[in-house]
Write a structure and sequence with these properties.
- By secondary structure, this protein is of the alpha+beta class.
- It has 2 domains: 81 residues; 241 residues, Bira Bifunctional Protein, Domain 2 (BirA Bifunctional Protein, domain 2), CATH 3.30.930.
- 42% of the residues lie in helices and 20% in strands.
- The strands form 2 sheets. Strands 1, 5, 6, 7, 8, 9, 10 and 11 form an 8-stranded mixed sheet that branches. Strands 2-4-3 form a 3-stranded antiparallel sheet.
- It binds phenylalanine (PHE).
């Protein structure tokens, strides 16, 4: 039996096959149930033993050779398909990302990061507290008793208790000062931390929104004084505003939770309707501060005969408006993409005190 014609024919077809389907068609034609090679195998039964001794192995060898050629053909077709796909799907991982097109960091987030970086350098940790508070944390513990005018001055949002529950209502915290109390009760003295976060007051105009952001800070130790407070805030403002010659003015004031209390103004000018920090004849209030009232230390579980400390609170949004010249607070919370594009910060520029804050 001469198999060389069969061999030549099918190896040729396998070599010509351009895809897996045609390879499969060749396999069926040669090696399928009714394939040409399979039919030849059936003829072996009719042969004499001598004929069978040569024809059998020859047919088996042909069958194996064709099977191997088909498998190799399938593998190389798959390789070629993969290579073709990779050609169209290549990706240059050395290309830089495109953060400005992907989104930007909101000025409130940016300023929070900047402020945290600066106070971090000064040794302050960061604490957070709940936005829904009990009136004890928001008021009583801060030396603001029930009938104190501050409770109404702060335009508090009260929240209804459940039916039949006549405990005092929860409030949306009107300032970050309740986190002072939580920090003291948790960690005791000495203490040094800041608390950034959202606060709420029923108020709405160019410089007030019902939700805004504050930054609280406090330091408690055996010998903390107003001098430490002053140095700390001056150091902060110098670093934050990134302007030479920052000048602060401490003005006597009153808060129930500090004694003595001071409001801090920063020197500025309003030339041509444009606010400039660091020079000029105007003063702009930027924060409230003072020595923590003994009753507040007590509410925080700290002995006022042994410890004393300072505290301050400022508006993060207001800092952002001042530093970046943003005129209307309401726009901060409009989620207008054009505004965010204009005032936003590149996503990968993380502010650090040494690497630059707003560079
Ligand atoms: N809690 C005050 C406010 O919201 C700010 C403040 C904090 C003042 C700490 C003094 C000390 O206006």
């Amino acid at each position: 039996m001469d198999l060389s014609d069969l061999r030549g024919k099918y190896l040729g077809q396998i070599g010509d096959a351009a895809d897996e389907a045609s390879l499969e068609a060749v396999r069926v034609a040669a090696l399928g149930k009714k394939g040409e090679v399979s039919l030849k195998m059936r003829e072996l039964g009719k042969m004499t033993p001598e004929e069978r001794q040569t024809a059998g192995p020859a047919l088996n060898a042909l069958k194996d050779e064709l099977n191997n050629a088909i498998a190799a053909g399938k593998a190389s077709l798959a390789d070629a398909a993969l290579a073709e796909r990779l050609k169209t799907e290549w990706l240059d991982v050395t290309l830089s990302p495109r953060p400005t097109q992907q989104g930007s960091i909101h000025p409130v987030s940016q300023v929070t990061e900047e402020v945290t970086a600066i106070f971090g350098e000064l040794g302050f940790g960061v604490k957070e507290g709940p936005q829904i508070e009990t009136d004890w944390y928001n008021f009583d513990a801060l030396n603001i008793p029930a009938e104190h005018p501050t409770r109404t001055e702060m335009d508090t949002f009260y929240m209804k208790r459940g039916e039949g529950d006549d405990r005092p209502p929860h409030v949306l915290r009107t300032h970050t000062s309740p986190v002072q109390i939580r920090g003291m009760l948790n960690d005791g003295a000495p203490a040094r931390f800041i608390c950034p976060g959202r606060v709420y007051r029923a108020d709405y105009d160019q410089t007030h929104t019902p939700m805004f952001h504050q930054l609280e800070g406090l330091a408690i130790d055996k010998d903390i004084s107003m001098a430490n407070l002053k140095w700390c805030l001056e150091e902060f403002c110098r670093a934050f505003f990134e302007v030479e010659g920052i000048e602060l003015r401490f003005r006597a004031s009153h808060f129930p939770f500090t004694e003595p209390s001071a409001e801090v103004d920063i020197r500025c000018s309003w030339g041509g309707g444009q606010l400039k920090i660091g020079a000029g004849d105007d003063w702009m209030e930027i924060l409230g501060s003072g020595m923590i009232h003994p009753k507040v230390l007590q509410a925080g579980g700290i002995d006022p005969d042994q410890w004393q400390g300072f505290a301050f609170g400022m508006g993060i949004d207001r800092l952002a408006m001042l530093k970046y010249g943003i005129p209307d607070l309401r726009a901060f919370f409009d989620s207008d993409l054009r505004w965010l594009k204009h005032y936003g910060f590149a996503a990968l520029d993380v502010p650090t005190a040494h690497g630059g804050l707003s560079a």
